Amino acid sequence: LTSVEIKCEIIRDYAFMDCDNLNSVVIGNAADVINKAVFKNCKNLASVSLPSVLSIIGNESFAGCSSLTTVKFPSTLSQIGDRAFYNSGVESIDLTNTNVRKIGQWAFANCDNLRSATLNDNIVTIGQAAFFDCPNLATYNTPASCSTIEQFAHKGNTSLQTDKLLHDNITTIGDYALMGMSHIADIILPESIDSIGSNAFENWVSLTSVYAHNHYTVPRLGQDVWKNVDQSKATLYVNAETCNAFAAADQWSDFNISVTVGTDNTIADSNAVNARFANTLLIITADHNIALASVYDSWGRQYAIVQPNSDNITIDTSAWGNNIYIIKVILDNSTTASFKLSRR
Question: FRET pair for 296, CA 20 to 30 Å: which of 107, 119, 185, 277?
Fold first, then answer.
């Protein structure tokens, strides 16, 4: 069997499982549910046309479909089941124009080719390990309705950027949820986070800065949260009110703790140079003019470079994203200042 067109209302569990030569499937609009493991392990399945009335993709429906790279999800889709695309060849996921509210456990785990996942903000539940070991996943956004990053959710996502991963509604990071992101140098912990699970940040070996400056209580930690992280070489940025609490807390106290932080409308002081973020970046000097000022993100991408020859400068940042920025300033007496600010 190499191709099939399905016109019936019900497709039973396991109906086409292990059909090794199946290459093309068209499912008519009579069916609104794809049941369990219908196309599981159809390793040569490369083309699937889903019905425009589809509401549920069942558990393991396309698991093991290693040749399936592209799937167009209909707007009527509301649920993606457990392991639905586990170990498949899918390269991108776009759920922005769907009604999906639930993504099951391990739904897209072990998808080596997956590079982007764009989710809608109505998704309430993303099961544990949903994107486990997707090493090429670089673009991902946690839906605004999700308050928990479940255990193992992004373990092994060694290409993932974190700018849209932790939003201001996240309260809990589960066990091993972010394990293995060895490429990340800086992380901003939203004020809403009150619990971080065991081994959540294990093997973040490039970590140099943790920003908890918006926290007024110390988040609870599981065991070995920072395992294999050299905390003696990393700085934890906190505010003055919680500095002592962080310094006395297990695991947090292993960082170099600093209260010199930059947040919206908060001045970061580097002796002769002050700076602050709002919709603009304001840089002010005490005694000398600014000969050169440059701004980069943590990946080295340049956002601004100016030579004002004045004691203050204002840079429009309205088009910049919420991120950590590195500001480097050279004064006219050849002294320099360099510090990090977070724009939130």
Answer: 119
Interstrand relation of 336-343 and 323-331 (parallel, antiparallel or unpaired): antiparallel
Look at residue 271 and tell me whether its pLDDT is greater than 60: no
Alpha-carbon distance of 22 to 343, in angstroms, equals: 51
Per-residue pLDDT of 21-38, as tens digits, reads 999 999 999 999 999 999
The runs of H, that is alpha helices, within 203-311 are 243-248
End-to-end CA distance of the chain: 55
Beta pairing, strands 280-285 & 47-49: unpaired
Q: Please check whether residue 31 is in contact with residue 55, taking contact to mean a CB–CB distance below 8 angstroms.
A: no
Selection from 289, 257, 295 nearest residue 273 by Cα: 289
The edge-to-edge listing of strands for the beta sheet with 47-49 is 3-6, 24-27, 47-49
Spatial distance between the Cα atoms of 252 and 238, rounded to a whole number of angstroms: 11
The residue ranges of DSSP E strands in 50-132, in sequence order, are 56-57, 79-80, 92-94, 102-103, 116-118, 125-126
Q: What are phi and psi of 221, to 5 degrees?
A: -120, 145
Q: What DSSP string describes 108-130?
A: TTT-TT--EEE--TT--EE-TTT
Q: Please check whether residue 134 is in contact with residue 108, taking contact to mean a CB–CB distance below 8 angstroms.
A: yes
d(CA 83, CA 54): 18
Within 10 A of 180 (CB to CB), how many other CB atoms are there?
21
Which residue has better confidence, 297 or 22?
Answer: 22
Joined tokens for residue 136: 């090429």
What's the whole-model pTM score? 0.77
Question: 305-322 pLDDT, tens per residue?
Answer: 888 888 888 888 888 877
Report the distance separating Cα 70 and Cα 34, nearest Å: 17
**How is residue 321 annotated by DSSP?**
-
Question: Nearest 5°: CA angle at 97, between 47 and 114?
Answer: 50
